[in-house]
Amino acid sequence: MTTGPLVDPETVPEWLRPLVKVAGEVDSRTFTRFSPPEDLLTRAAAVLILFGERPGIGPDVLLQLRADTLGSHAGQVAFPGGGAEDGDDGPVGTALREAEEETGVDPSGILPVAVLPELFVPVSKFAVTPVLAHWHTASPVRAVDPAETAAVARVALADLADPANRFTVRRGDASWKGPAFAVDGLFVWGFTAGLLSVLLSLGGWEREWDTGDVRDLDVAWAEHRAANVARGGTGEE
Questions:
Q1: Distances from the Cα of 199 to the Cαs of 6, 119, 231, in angstroms?
Q2: What's the whole-model pTM score?
Q3: Domain spanning 4-31+43-230: CATH 3.90.79.10
């Protein structure tokens, strides 16, 4: 599928236009340094990056917390999405179907506005196509299947861009490091945080933050869960 805008950028809200306009000017290297080996068989997948807007809050994005019992990416925050299936109408169809199955969102209220380049995720060997969409008519969302999704949340872009909520995480052996967010009781890192970080910049929402604040991933995640429990939560939201 051709990447880039799916609609005239002038037809979307002004705050979303810069991101739609730039969608056709980026390639996979804008988002990741990973590319699949030539002999590796990847599986096609798509995620829905659904942007909405709420009075008094402003633009937001839909995220979900994956259940701790899942075999891969357990307990991580992610965009709704998953592997392509027969009958899907390309990445857009996959993204909309998965979002409805996982969060209960009504696809009729969603306008896909752009398709980003396919991105390789080494851990799962998925070739993931991010689909940007505008949630013009919001509908209730929830964790449809608790065995797959622990929680669903609309997170304000202003909160994601808040320097107080941003830092960098790295594995103990320093073999990998990347951006992270602690916002609305969610600890966001990995593929999702990397995408969000670039999108905040491309969309013109990014604020200067302390990129030198580097924390050990396991320690930061454990501290986040402990803090949630101390606030009366389960440690999972």
A1: 17, 14, 31
A2: 0.93
A3: yes
**pLDDT per 10-residue tile (average), the chain, 237 residues:** 91 97 94 78 93 98 84 76 93 97 97 95 88 97 91 97 97 85 95 96 97 94 84 57
Count of beta carbons in the 10 Å neighbourhood of residue 77: 25
